[in-house]
Design goal:
Layout (H helix, E strand, L loop, with lengths): L3 E2 L3 E3 L7 E12 L5 E7 L1 E2 L4 E2 L4 E6 L4 E11 L9 E11 L5 E11 L9 E11 L1
Parallel strand pairs: 1-4, 2-4, 3-11
Antiparallel strand pairs: 4-9, 5-6, 7-10, 8-9, 10-11
């Protein structure tokens, strides 16, 4: 079954001091039992098209009513100087338990080396809230 796509591409386009942040995706509707990409994460500079090291994803809190599979997927870079270029993104794909309907939540952490001198790291925690229909 081909996964549907619900996503957030977190693009880190500046090289600054090490930091940590938190964000939220959703609430977003997904179909029960259907694999859905709920997070797509990559680091690149949209002006120079420099694609940084692939972010490492970790499940901090798994979903209570399904599974979350971490993987990689080719993605397009979107508009701007990098339009038409593809890159590999780290992804999180959610699939609810059979017949489950209702709310589900999970937390994923993404850690990235994004600094040109190789000394910094950035860590983001993402709360993903889904309305499973």
């Amino acid at each position: 079954m081909k996964p549907s796509h619900l996503g957030l591409a977190l693009v880190l386009s500046t090289f600054t001091v090490a930091s940590a942040s938190a964000s939220q995706v959703g609430p977003a509707a997904v179909r029960s039992g259907t694999p859905t990409v709920v997070l797509s994460y990559a680091s690149y500079d949209p002006e120079t098209c420099y694609f940084a090291t692939l972010p490492i994803l970790r499940v901090i809190r798994p979903p209570a009513h399904g599974t979350l599979t971490l993987g990689k997927q080719k993605r397009g870079s979107g508009k701007g100087a990098c339009e038409g270029k593809t890159f590999v993104a780290s992804t999180a794909t959610y699939r609810s338990s059979a017949g489950y309907r209702g709310r589900d939540e999970m937390v994923v952490e993404a850690e990235t080396d994004i600094y040109s001198d190789g000394t910094g790291r950035r860590s983001d925690s993402v709360l993903i809230i889904l309305d499973v229909k």
